[in-house]
Design goal:
By secondary structure, this protein is α/β, with parallel strands linked by helices. It is 29% helix and 24% strand. The radius of gyration is 22 Å and the shape is globular.
């Protein structure tokens, strides 16, 4: 059920009902501009990952700054973006099941739709769905470049799938999906360089083997917020699929640069606003934001600009803060911003973004693709 907005434009931050999902619009827009500037002149395009934001409003802001389109993980996310006017969408994932494939093919009547495969049976099922819908779908072969998740092995296996796609009547071979997800969160730059060097070498070999068989790769996609600059300089990737850069979260902020400091390229722009609902225990304050308000799979959230407070644990509806005996205790009813450890699943807990300019509410945006699991 769509919840009522927790705020209205013009409100001050302390008036917002909680828990609420806030965007610092100045930091958010600076992040979009930074990514656009980093990619300008490189020949590599941004296909921003909408699994992070789940919002056509945000997608259009990224596209206005040069993004070629969006990628998603689920058909439901693709539907929301296409219905919201996004014209170029890649499902950077495999889609299995007749119902999902019918929905995906139907979207190709209103937008350019592409999808990934790593099995011949997926190609055959996609071709049938596209034929039934009277459309043509772009198809990328996903290769495993180190994540050990989805994808065929680089090289001959990928070439064989490309041949099968090209031989299909209602599909077109559109390139390679070569995303190394676990590399995004390697803390040391040497670790990230090593992982991405191996990924780009495997991708480059596959692109060359495809070319020898007469196949060009309009899209060679992958990369993320943690490594995109490495993929850009490789000269192999044509599209970057970064998502979290627009918000940043506490986990990405732990990545270090060569000097041992946080990379710091993007600013924290996403927060969960929470209220102190209990302060009855010494050294403890309880927030109204637990598991149902903030994801903890990538670590506990940080308390924004209050380093003396530690978010020590979550239950369904409670977040436990602890602090030292000599620290200033949070007040009952006080509102605090939390920086999520992982922005994507945190966003999926809310119906609304509350856009902030300073301490005042500037806008409300629906999290339109929230819960899009299918």
């Amino acid at each position: 059920m769509l919840q009522s907005p927790p705020a209205s434009p013009g409100m001050l931050e302390h008036e917002i009902d909680t828990p609420a999902l806030l965007i610092d619009l100045d930091a958010f827009e600076a992040n979009l501009d930074t990514m656009a500037a980093r990619l300008s002149g490189t020949g590599t395009r941004l296909r921003a990952h909408a699994k992070t934001h789940k919002s056509p409003v945000i997608a259009h802001q990224q596209i206005a700054r040069g993004a070629v389109g969006q990628c998603v993980q689920k058909v439901a996310e693709a539907e929301i973006l296409a219905w919201g006017g996004v014209q170029d969408i890649l499902v950077s994932n495999e889609v299995v099941g007749a119902a999902k494939l019918a929905r995906l093919a139907a979207l190709a009547r209103i937008a350019t739709i592409s999808v990934c495969v790593d099995d011949a049976a997926q190609v055959e099922a996609l071709d049938r769905a596209a034929e039934h819908a009277g459309v043509r779908l772009g198809v990328l072969v996903e290769i495993d470049v180190g994540a050990a998740r989805c994808g065929v092995q680089p090289g001959p296996d990928a070439v064989a799938l490309a041949k099968l796609i090209a031989a299909s009547r209602h599909l077109r071979f559109s390139g390679l999906q070569a995303y190394h997800g676990s590399a995004q969160h390697l803390r040391l730059p040497a670790e990230r360089h090593f992982a991405i060097r191996a990924a780009t070498d495997a991708t480059r070999r596959t692109v060359e083997q495809l070319r020898q068989q007469g196949f060009e790769c309009p899209i060679v996609g992958g990369a993320g917020t943690g490594t995109f600059e490495l993929e850009v300089v490789s000269g192999v990737y044509t599209e970057i699929q970064a998502g979290s850069y627009c918000f940043m979260d506490a986990d990405y902020a732990r990545n270090l640069d060569a000097s041992g400091h946080p990379v710091g390229l993007f600013r924290h722009a996403l927060f969960v606003l929470a209220t102190v609902m209990s302060a009855a225990q010494p050294g403890v304050a309880v927030l109204d934001a637990g598991h149902k308000a903030v994801a903890v799979d990538s670590g506990m959230p940080l308390v924004w600009e209050r380093p003396e407070l530690r978010y020590a644990g979550a239950s369904d509806e409670h977040g436990k803060l602890v602090f030292g005996a000599h620290e200033t205790a949070p007040r009952l009813g006080e509102k605090l911003r939390l920086v999520p450890g992982h922005c994507d699943p945190t966003v999926d807990r809310f119906d609304w973004y509350v856009g902030m300019r300073g301490q005042r509410v500037a806008c409300l945006w629906p999290v339109a693709a929230r819960g899009g699991l299918s």
